[in-house]
Amino acid sequence: ERAVVRCVPSEPKLSLRFVLPDGSAKHMQRDQAEPLGRALARIATNAAKGRAKAAKKSKKARAEGGPAGEAAAAAPAVRLFSRDGEAVAEEVPNAAAWQDGAVLQIGEAQYRVERNPPALTELQLPRSLLAGFPVCPKVSAEFAAPQHCLFRWYREQRPAAGGEAARGDGGPAWVETAAADRVFTPSNALVGLRLKLRCTPGDGTQRYGPPREVESSGPVEAGPGACTFDSRHLYTKKVCGEGSIRAVSYNILADTYAQTEFSRTVLYPYCAPYALELDYRQNLLKKELAGYSADLICLQEVDKSVFMDSLAPALDAFGLAGLFRIKEKQHEGLATFYRRDKFSLLSQHDIAFSEALLSDPLHKELCDKLARYPLVQEKVLQRSSVLQVLVLRSTADPSRKICVANTHLYWHPKGGNIRLIQIAVALSHIKHIACDLYPSIPVIFCGDFNSTPSSGTYSFINSGGISEDHEDWVSNGEEEKCNMPLSHPFKLLSACGEPAYTNYVGGFHGCLDYIFIDKNALEVEQVIPLPSHEEVTTHQALPSVSHPSDHIALICDLKWK
């Protein structure tokens, strides 16, 4: 029999679970500092109660008197023996006494102590399953790691011609598939059948905990056929080599904005309603992102729940670790993922523009200038836009560090002046990190800048400066103008150039997304071609049944100079 002990230094109590000889399950909580003797005495009392109950039952059954009850109620001897067979002294505190491999003896019964065995705390399958698209379970475990767990995938047995295939108890009959990986891609042959996953938690030392099973809520459905990213995946089958970095920037269209009446009727009336649903789009997104074999992925418009429940678990299974930064007033934000075997995270330096502008002395000069234009200042401070910044270290060459920034600037077509202020704050902040904190480390700056190549913002990033008489300072009319010259020290280049468009909706198309790189330290090895105009417009515009967002991902391979 097993006696399972859970003992974590940060908690005052340990828990102990075992099944008494009479069949009753016990779950005890004891202070970690309490002497072992007290815990053993408590176990003896519980065992005695159990015996008394069992005796009463048998007494009733025999329907005869006698001292059976009292005899049975005598407390059994309870002792704990260490691995090498020595009895553990009763004054030893619980935390030290209950070691893995020790033996608990209750009367005649013996239990092997398992201390902190691997255990699953969560196992979930996505709600929507599509043939040809990866199914990535959400796995959370204690004293275990998903990469060390064992996975077995099952499918429902197809009903015979006469009706439903069933086990003896009326439930569905399950057939084991050949798949034993964390991610499972159902074939077309499984359309109409539900899936079941059996997961056994492991910790990488050949130690395994009790398995858990989860069944899908619905059957596998047919996929959409060809998607816009299929041809792009032909260029990204493998992770690129050691001296190269594959970067992706992608506004994935937040569910918050896709599922409104306005989106369905005004913004995307051409898109089939089911293709705007989150579960459907997530299937496409996970396949798209996994297929890019990227080292860095910067995403915008990421719903918090999408990050937690869908993207982080899925991309984790493909070797990427992710960090999320929410916009204060919204339910969406930014997510940046990096390949774990290529990079480790050194530090994180996220800011909200409005907050940084007011409180960080770095931006005092800009803040003072802005105070002269109260209308613009108020607008800038109302925005919840954020900047995510990570400093990563190369695992192959620890002397190589890189600063990765990700942002989503204010969206309004007439908000060019607001975007100029936001980008000025962003570049000052990045300068502080890449020039002061980590002198002269290269920068990769990705995002949805909501700025076309003819805008002041693009010109400022590209050229290093902007004059006070640039037309974007009066982008929203004379009463909201705020003329000021700005400069930054970086030599930045748009790695993917200036595509005709990165956003293609019914009423607009244009280039709004960029991957800016430090041209002193990095060069472009290749740009993965964007989908053809024909592919983008097959279903009129984006999003569509074959493309999950209204934006298109930018992908490029960079190498250190």
What is the compact description of this entry?
Helix 7 (278-291) runs parallel beside helix 8 (304-317) and helix 12 (416-437) packs parallel to helix 13 (456-463). The chain has 561 residues and is an alpha+beta fold.
Poorly predicted runs of 5 or more residues: 68-72
Structural category:
alpha+beta
Beta strand count: 31
Number of domains: 3
| CATH fold assignment of the largest domain | Deoxyribonuclease I, Chain A
Helix content: 10-25%
| Number of distinct helices | 14
Q: Tell me the distance between the termini.
A: 61 Å
Mean pLDDT: 94
Range of strand content? 25-35%
Radius of gyration over alpha carbons?
A: 30 Å
Written overview of the protein:
By secondary structure, this protein is α+β, with helices and mostly antiparallel strands. It has three domains: 2-49 and 77-115, Ubiquitin-like (UB roll) (Roll); 119-157 and 172-215, Immunoglobulin-like (Sandwich), CATH 2.60.40.2700; 228-560, Endonuclease/exonuclease/phosphatase (Deoxyribonuclease I, Chain A), CATH 3.60.10. The protein contains 14 helices and 31 strands. Strands 19, 20, 21, 22, 23, 26 and 29 form a seven-stranded mixed beta sheet that branches. Helix 7 runs parallel beside helix 8 and helix 12 packs parallel to helix 13 (456-463). The longest helix is centred in the N-terminal third of the chain and has 27 residues, at 36-62. The protein is elongated, with a radius of gyration of 30 Å. The relative contact order is 0.09.
